[in-house]
Amino acid sequence: MKSALLYKMTIWTGPTYDEVGGKGVLTIEAYFKVALWGSRGRNRNDYLPSVGVPFFQDWVSRHFGMFVPQDEIKVRFERERPAETEEGEIIVDFRVMTYRGKSISAQPYPREIIPLDDHGSGYDPGYVDEDSDELVSDGSEWDDGDDEDEDYERDEE
What we know:
Layout: E1 4-18, E2 24-36, H1 40-64, E3 74-77, E4 81-83, E5 89-100, E6 103-115
Antiparallel strand pairs: 1-2, 1-3, 1-4, 2-5, 5-6
């Protein structure tokens, strides 16, 4: 009988100098854990990196105010293990290593959860719940950009 597999993925970047916060040289690591059904190759090569890398970039941007290009992000997997059932969320733990001269310190950050409502949809940092009222901070309704009066030109390459 086939079972779901427990995936453990590590995403990291660094060492890089923290110009915004002045904390020194940083290595930022994220540890993702989730149990999923489906093709091991598809989950490893397509699905989990498509969720993890944008989530990692968004987290680094929110916490450190810096953008990490995709080519500076490394992704590795541990060996999968059988799991009882598929999970509905990805658990993410972050650790930031700070280097100042010969001194090294590691700081854990609070655990984050990525809900998996639709397997294969990827991570969307701009997701708006369909049930919520789309109101901007001043209480007015969200402008969806569908103004028929405006001319729209597309740059073609």
